[in-house]
Every structure is written in structure tokens, then in C-alpha cells.
Specification:
heterodimer; A: 112 residues; mainly beta; six-stranded mixed beta sheet; five-stranded antiparallel beta sheet; 11 strands; globular; B: 117 residues; four-stranded antiparallel beta sheet
């Protein structure tokens, strides 16, 4: 079955780049998503990448996909204190219906 | 910008009681979902719904759970005879389509935090 894993914590200084990593097991993923969850809030869609792409850039966000290693990363440039949140990667698998399988979430802490 | 809304934001109930969690999906979306997140655990898929029918459900979604679209705007999750382990954040989501590029992207509501005592 599908499984998505992430490291639990990441701490960076304000202004530095953050890189949040995710690994997944199902090679038939179609779309991979990054969601952001601020304390007490819901899941905010940040960006997504289709599985036939290697990279997608959206302002401060860069998503890299390594299909061979089944590795997805989210890079946040010039990280700000407002970026402190939990970041979830999620995959949608071909033939797996429309459900999303989420990772454990990575808590990003941005320090001054 | 259109968004998914959920009510209530918090609900406390006694074990054995029934609860109904409400969601208003984005107005032109046709596919609706419920997920839950037990504290400290992953977000888990419960059920997807289209054209007044369940299209997919997980093992978690047993006879204790039911979903309904009672009118043109609301989408509800009913939990009968709640158990302690039902305590979680419940997220509603909606998408425009089932497949087909960016339109299949699921947009989530802010969640309902359910506490069963």
C-alpha cells in the first residue's frame, strides 16, 4: 500500500532556505502535493507537482521530484517567521481512487 | 477566494452520543471528502462522495459513520454512538473533478475538533 514519510522537525534561521523532504513508496503516484497547517488551522494547499515533472517553481517555493528515488522536496527561499507551520506532503496514486495519502508532517520552526 | 467552511469549529460530546459535522464545499465542486487527524498522527482518508453516493471509503469508515448531502450546499458526516477513539480533527475537502489536472486538487476546510468524553 501507499506510505509517505517525512522527518518530524526542521529548524532554520529567518532568511535562510528551508528544505523539507518526503519519501513515498508507490511508484504509480500521479500528483504529489504540499499542504501547510498553521496552529489550530486547516490544511492550506501550497503547491503540487504532476509525476511527469521534475521541478516546479512558484515564487519562494520550489518543488523537486526524484522519481527514481521516490523523493519529493519542498524548498522555501528566504524563510520568514510566518512560514512556521507543519508541512504535509501527500500523494494521489493512479488506480487508488481519489484519496490522498499524507505523510506524518514536518514541523518547521523559523528562528530569528 | 472560494473556500471550504466547516461547523462547528469545536465539539465536545459524551461517549455514546451522535454527532453531525457540517461542511459547505466550494460551490462549483462536485466531489467531497472527509479526512480525520487523530492528535499526533497522520491525516487519514475516510470517505469520498459524488453524485449522492459514496465513491470510496477506507477501513475506518464503518457502519458507525455516514455521509449525506442534504441540500445543494451542505455535506455532513454523522458519527453514531461516538467512542473515545473518535476524538480527532475532522477535515472536509472538495474538488472540482475526480481526475484531470489541477481541477482534481482537493481544497480543505479548517476542520472540526471533536472531543469525546
Amino acid at each position: 500500500g501507499e506510505d509517505v514519510e517525512q522527518s518530524l522537525f526542521l529548524s532554520v534561521r529567518e532568511g535562510d532556505s528551508s528544505v523539507i523532504n518526503c519519501t513515498y513508496t508507490d511508484s504509480s503516484s500521479t500528483y504529489l502535493y504540499w499542504y501547510k497547517q498553521e496552529p489550530g488551522a486547516g490544511l492550506q494547499l501550497l503547491t503540487y507537482i504532476f509525476s511527469n515533472m521534475d521541478m516546479k517553481q512558484d515564487q519562494r517555493l520550489t518543488v523537486l521530484l526524484n522519481k527514481k528515488d521516490k523523493h519529493l522536496s519542498l524548498r522555501i527561499a528566504d524563510t520568514q517567521t510566518g512560514d512556521s507551520a507543519i508541512y504535509f506532503c501527500a500523494e494521489k496514486v493512479a488506480g487508488g481512487g481519489n484519496k490522498l495519502t499524507f505523510g506524518t508532517g514536518t514541523q518547521l520552526k523559523v528562528e530569528l | 477566494e472560494p473556500e471550504v467552511t466547516q461547523t462547528p469549529s469545536h465539539q465536545v460530546t459524551q461517549m455514546g452520543q451522535e454527532v453531525i459535522l457540517r461542511c459547505v464545499p466550494i460551490s462549483n465542486h462536485l466531489y467531497f471528502y472527509w479526512y480525520r487527524q487523530i492528535l499526533g498522527q497522520k491525516v487519514e482518508f475516510l470517505v469520498s462522495f459524488y453524485n449522492n453516493e459514496i465513491s470510496e471509503k477506507s477501513e475506518i469508515f464503518d457502519d458507525q459513520f455516514s455521509v449525506e448531502r442534504p441540500d445543494g450546499s451542505n455535506f455532513t458526516l454523522k458519527i453514531r454512538s461516538t467512542k473515545l477513539e473518535d476524538s480527532a480533527m475532522y477535515f472536509c475537502a472538495s474538488s472540482a473533478t475526480y481526475s484531470g489536472g489541477a481541477q482534481e486538487t482537493q481544497y480543505f476546510g479548517p476542520g472540526t475538533r471533536l472531543l469525546v468524553l
